[in-house]
Amino acid sequence: MRIETNVLFDLDGTLVDSVYQHVLAWKQALDAEGIALSVWRIHRKIGMSGGLFTNQLLRETDLEISPERVDRLRRFHAEAYAGLSDQIVPLPGAQALLAALTEAGIPWAIATSGRMETARANLDALGIDPAAVPVVTRDQVKYAKPDPDLFLAAAERLGVRIDHSVIVGDSIWDMLAARRCKGLGVGLLSGGYGTDELERAGAVRVYEAPADLLVHLDEVAGRR
To answer: Model pTM?
Structure first.
């Protein structure tokens, strides 16, 4: 029996160069709430769901976690990120990688922990219309990464088996989610995590950026 490969992509730090814009946007949001937290601590949590992200940050600072505060932080972050959206560009090779998969007839989809309010700028930078390409955002699932719901929903949208999916992401949260749903986790260094961290979280291969993955697609069964 032949296994038909499909590819599920994270978005921030995987296809678009946006991780540090998210970090700065969260920093602005936290500052607006009077919460002092170092930038490096924020970066270590990029890639998980926004709700889990804010809960962890607030636990670290021993502040009260209220739904109102979490909602304010989310809104502040979205507003700050929108102000940085003109800086968002595709990562090297991202558009060529997606085009190569399409040309080869390999189904692909995007699954992001961001809500559509922040993901829209990233999709625009890539030239992707979510009406034409399967895109699953935080708005559409109960839990985001490191839970596997986003990838499971993306596989369902494609009509494929999740255990036949190559799941490409830049964070340990992507790899943990891939492991939990029995997908094949492939890590990229373009979000700031190291090779050892990604491999410990479950990545079976690690590449520098989308351009590097494109060159090595045959290593992860990316061919027809």
So the answer is: 0.92
